PAP2 superfamily C-terminal
Amino acid sequence: MDFLQQYILFVYFYTHTKRLTYLMQFKPFTWQIAWDYLTFRIKFILGMVLLIAILIFIPRFFLHIEAREGKVLNDWLLAVIPAIDVSTYIFIVIYAIVGLMLYRMSKNTMMCLTALWAFIFLCSARMISITLVPLNPPEGLINLADPVLSFFYRSNLITKDLFFSGHTATVFLSALCLEAKRDRQIAFIATGIIAVLLLIQHVHYTADILAAPFFTWCCWYLGKSVARL
């Protein structure tokens, strides 16, 4: 095959895959159709490999975080909120939104790709921020034993993964990734509810929760950019 033929093939496959990525932004493709394209397969498989690597690394990381000492912030808002155990409500809201998100992702390959890479960036950003901002739990903390996170962290008590709030970030990321107007409205409302409940239980400082949407938006934007490459 001479150079001209190779160049023509390259242009064809490049424009074809770019056109697919463009179309996927406006029309949900089935998994069978999307999987036929190399670009989608590469981004999806690479994303899954990175996500699995992060999940394998996370237990060691959080065990290290729990062993170190950090600073206790003077949070005036938490000081006036009595600590109440609202764990059940927190889990109901979070896993309802996550369940909705997973269902929508199963029907929309572009949304799945965006959420996958956004979550990878989100996990990475949290590990960096938690490392750079060592904090001890707020005073009056009521332990929040998350059955799913406990499985991955291999610990029943993780209290120092504070800046920024992973619970708030997860729900807010779902709100950003969801496409239906009603779904987004529900997820945004759920984000506000989770923020309030976390403060009531004294699981996070106010700063942890206020910072979460900013970092999450940045990670969502990066994830969307990777999905559209």
User: Anything to note?
Assistant: The two ends are 28 Å apart (CA to CA). Residues 42-228 form one domain. Confidence is low (pLDDT under 50) at residues 5-15. DSSP finds ten helices and no strands in the chain.
